Amino acid sequence: MLQPQTIRFLSGLEKNNNKAWFDHNRPAYESARLDFQQFIEKVIQELEKTDPTITGTVARECLFRINRDVRFSNDKSPYKTNMGASIKRGGRKSPFAGYYFHIEPGKSFIGGGLWMPDGAALKQVRQEIDYNWDEFSKLTADKPFKKVYTDLYKDKEVSLSTAPKGYEKDNPALVYLKLKSFIAETAVPDADLSKPSLHKKTVVAFQTLYPFICFLNRALSE
């Protein structure tokens, strides 16, 4: 579970996204970050029993910075209004697929996969899906997977409007071959964030995602 103060801090930051407020509330930020870090640490300890590739992962190195990079953005708000953690083989900045936890009041979710890979990696994943369609389709149709995630994320921001080069329009895997990101996510209601069951819910969701993560990382390793 996460402490209610952590959620309150993020709610306050959303309404007061400026340096003066943040500096005044820095102790609350440090407390919230530590709370999140300790939560992720417990998740890693349990998850590495299923996924040995993350063994030795340090929780604090999985967390993203709260400061926004505003250099190329019209939105000059200095801080993110969320906390996120990426748990994966090789560390948060590695090119491999992994698990992600996102806390943001009203927008929290558990998920993972591969977000916007470069051209070479994208080609590898598409090829793996095409060559092993029966295996991939079983992964996404698996009952536990569908119960937690329903399907992969397919919004237009991560999907081509037409078949990618080299693939026919009648390819049975086309809906997935058109994707530019390969991720699954499930929403976490605010009320669940402070429940003792959050830890178990997160671990189960990540364990359910493990076969999908393995498929993606096999593609990237070949």
Quick description:
This protein is of the alpha+beta class. Helices cover 45% and strands 11% of the residues.
Task: Describe the overall structure.
The chain is of the alpha+beta class and 222 residues long. The protein contains 9 helices and 4 strands. It has a 4-stranded antiparallel sheet with strand order 1-2-3-4, with helices on one face. A hairpin with a 5-residue loop joins strand 2 and strand 3 (109-114). The longest helix has 24 residues, at 198-221. It is globular and about 55 Å long.
Descriptors:
222 residues; four-stranded antiparallel sheet; 9 helices; globular
Give the overall silhouette: globular
What is the tally of helical segments?
9
Q: What is the topology, as strand order, of the major beta sheet?
A: 1-2-3-4
Largest sheet: 4 strands, antiparallel
